[in-house]
């Protein structure tokens, strides 16, 4: 494991995938444990995708007062939380069914229109203690959360003063058929104490380097997460 610190990020390179999983899970546990010790409860925001799933599984096996942990989402497709393509389903399957007692707040509420779901998420974000931890991912196109390059709503989302917004990702092929999203904004991320970006594969590392060498958040929205004031983004990468 080697770490490379820059002004923008702290990049930790892992040579072994098992080490990557173990270290990421341990760092997440440390953030939650510290928050519980200080405040009595902890809240974290998780991303979907296959990359973080084994980390969530490992985290759930670690000793912690899970009944003092609240779990939210970084972003979500406009799908029922019971749909296996939703981020809510992945978080439940990989983490919640193992971390007994943890409380989960999905972004999509069945029977509520998207505007009401966003309003509910923003109310909770404004009236609850800020999350102590957020786990982000990044696509090969440089997107993070549901901030997709080329999407019609990206400029509005990046400039928003709300923690969450709905986003129409039409125009971005990576969004596939799920163009309607709810996503954390840079404004919402600014309140998070520990920010982790979990990456695997050389392609992801190359895209991250391209983003750092560039200056366009519309082309590489991950730059918005890197530049958001507050805690420096800590990147864990392995092949």
Give a written overview of the molecule.
The chain has 239 residues and is of the alpha/beta class. The protein has helices at 17-39, 53-60, 87-96, 114-127, 154-159, 186-189, 202-213, 222-227, and strands spanning 2-5, 9-13, 42-46, 69-73, 75-77, 103-104, 133-136, 164-168, 180-184, 194-200, 233-238. It has an eight-stranded mixed β-sheet with strand order 1-2-11-10-7-3-4-6, with helices on both faces. The chain has a three-stranded antiparallel β-sheet with strand order 5-9-8. Strand 1 (2-5) and strand 2 (9-13) form a beta hairpin. It is globular.
Topology at a glance:
Elements: E1 2-5, E2 9-13, H1 17-39, E3 42-46, H2 53-60, E4 69-73, E5 75-77, H3 87-96, E6 103-104, H4 114-127, E7 133-136, H5 154-159, E8 164-168, E9 180-184, H6 186-189, E10 194-200, H7 202-213, H8 222-227, E11 233-238
Parallel strand pairs: 2-11, 3-4, 3-7, 4-6, 7-10, 10-11
Antiparallel strand pairs: 1-2, 5-9, 8-9
Helix pairs in contact: 1-2, 2-3
């Amino acid at each position: 494991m080697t770490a490379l610190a820059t002004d923008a990020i702290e990049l930790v390179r892992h040579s072994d995938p098992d080490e990557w999983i173990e270290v990421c899970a341990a760092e997440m546990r440390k953030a939650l444990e510290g928050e519980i010790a200080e405040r009595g409860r902890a809240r974290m925001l998780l991303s979907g995708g296959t990359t973080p799933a084994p980390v969530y599984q490992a985290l759930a096996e670690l000793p912690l007062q899970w009944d003092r942990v609240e779990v939210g989402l970084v972003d979500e497709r406009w799908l029922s939380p019971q749909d296996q393509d939703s981020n809510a389903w992945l978080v439940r399957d990989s983490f919640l069914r193992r971390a007994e007692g943890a409380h989960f707040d999905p972004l999509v509420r069945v029977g509520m229109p998207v505007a009401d779901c966003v309003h509910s998420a923003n109310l909770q974000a404004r009236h609850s203690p800020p999350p102590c931890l957020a786990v982000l991912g990044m696509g090969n196109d440089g997107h993070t959360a549901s901030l997709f390059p080329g999407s019609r709503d990206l400029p509005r989302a990046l400039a928003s003063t709300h923690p969450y917004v709905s986003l129409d990702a039409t125009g971005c092929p990576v969004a596939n058929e799920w163009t309607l999203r709810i996503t954390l904004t840079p404004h919402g991320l600014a309140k998070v104490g520990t920010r982790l970006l979990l990456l695997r594969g050389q392609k992801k590392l190359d895209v991250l380097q391209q983003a750092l060498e560039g200056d366009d958040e519309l082309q590489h929205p991950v730059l918005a997460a890197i530049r958001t004031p507050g805690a420096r983004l800590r990147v864990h990468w392995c092949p």
